[in-house]
């Protein structure tokens, strides 16, 4: 696999899903859930949806996610790699790649709210994630029109002074 070409491929972006357990602890209360290991794993496995590799070229994972599995016993990493997603972990050093966009907040906000920590919502949350990924892909290509977006997805996520 040619890592550079894969990561920089048009219409695809890097999904930063390297939230630590402490950062997950900030997300969970926003959806009325406790910051438990089970909830963290359930949140991290939302990205394991067929088709995500068409829109996501790379995934930055929290280190423990490298060893975690989906409910059917498959490693999260394997599910992503099978879809041609380059997997890595954050090492707190500058990223040398030219990246046109990062999916993180744009994808995760609506997906997290859709899931709400409830198993019954997993399928819908995964569909929402894929829809957001496709919208970001189109935006990166200059083809996004915003048609058919949900009210939640249309809400602005701009946060003054937010630093990545």
Automatic annotation (TrEMBL):
Q: Which UniProt keywords apply?
A: Glycolysis, Lyase
**What is one process in the GO biological process aspect for this record?**
glycolytic process
Q: What is its EC number?
A: 4.1.2.13
Task: List the pathway annotation.
Answer: Carbohydrate degradation; glycolysis; D-glyceraldehyde 3-phosphate and glycerone phosphate from D-glucose: step 4/4
Task: Give this protein's Gene Ontology molecular function annotations.
Answer: fructose-bisphosphate aldolase activity
- Pfam families the record matches: Glycolytic
Q: Which reaction does it catalyse?
A: beta-D-fructose 1,6-bisphosphate = D-glyceraldehyde 3-phosphate + dihydroxyacetone phosphate
Gene3D superfamilies in the cross-refs: Aldolase class I (3.20.20.70)
The UniProt entry's sequence similarity note says: Belongs to the class I fructose-bisphosphate aldolase family.
The protein here is known as fructose-bisphosphate aldolase
